[in-house]
Amino acid sequence: MITAPAVTIGRIGHEREPIVVIDGFSSDPAGLVEAAASQAYAARGAHYPGVRAAHAGQYLSERMDLLMRLLSDVFGHSNGADLVECNFSIVTTPPEALTPLQRLPHFDAADPGRIAVLHYLCGPSAGGTAFYRHRTTGFETVSLSRMEDYAERLDADLARHGDPKAEYLRGDTALFEQTYRVGAAFNRLVIYRGWTLHSGTVPAGLALSGDPRAGRLTVNTFLQAR
Fold it and tell me: Residue 45 belongs to what domain range?
């Protein structure tokens, strides 16, 4: 018997940004892992600390009614959304090889209509995803109107404090306060707006295998609200 997904809706930080966690999202997560294992991976972009392989994202159609209802009821996008990008992703970069950019929280786009959909195909030992407030500005999201101020004041922070240590971000720092964290769980899907400051949490000592069957495997999807 196929169990219905369990949906939890929450709010993050002072700005009360919505977040949705869906446990048991896919009826065939093992099949997704096997599909991931058949792909060819490569480094893509400056932000992600690992390798990726493009995925068509067609498996999301199984829960499309649920996703569209959440986009409307929780995020306020009643006209649906278009698929922007979907990738199998595996964290493989050793902590000492992280760029300064990869040691900081980031945002995906300064647009409230860009929706991040993160599907964990790994277990709790892989860490999770955390959300942050920039201490100097108080920003938890970065909109177009905030971008210049955020960039200038973050640069000033880094000039004063120096680059973060060469390690994955976990918890509070001198520059950022953690406001919320979602732990990884196999077949857990997390939805949030891409303008929210966030970072993957990777436990110290985690074996960063490039094997999709053993590594920190996720499906990372971006939707654009119509």
Answer: 6-225
User: Could you tell me where the beta strands, DSSP code E, fall in the chain?
Assistant: 6-12, 17-23, 50-54, 81-91, 114-120, 128-134, 176-183, 188-193, 198-201, 216-225
Locate 113 and state its tokens: 């209509």
- Three-state secondary-structure class, residue 97: helix
In what order do the strands lie in the sheet containing 198-201?
Answer: 176-183, 128-134, 198-201
Separation between Cα atoms, residue 129 and residue 173, nearest integer Å: 16
Is residue 46, in this structure, part of any structural domain at all?
Answer: yes
Domains contained in the chain, number? 1
Quick one: which of 98, 118, 128, 103 has its CA closest to 194? 118
The residue with tokens 């195909």 is: 121
Sheet order of strands, 6-12 included: 6-12, 17-23, 188-193, 114-120, 216-225, 81-91, 50-54
Q: What is the pLDDT of residues 37-74, one digit of tens each?
A: 999 999 988 889 999 999 999 999 999 999 999 999 99
Q: What is the pLDDT of residues 77-90, one digit of tens each?
A: 999 999 999 999 99
Give yes or no for a contact between 175 and 154, defined as CB atoms under 8 angstroms apart. yes
- Taking the C-alpha atoms of residue 197 and residue 64, their distance in angstroms, rounded to an integer, is 26
Instruction: Establish if 143 belongs to a structural domain.
Output: yes
31 strand-pairing partners: none
Decide if 215 is inside a domain.
yes
Distance CA 174, CA 92 (A): 26
Are the CB atoms for 25 and 63 separated by under 8 Å? yes
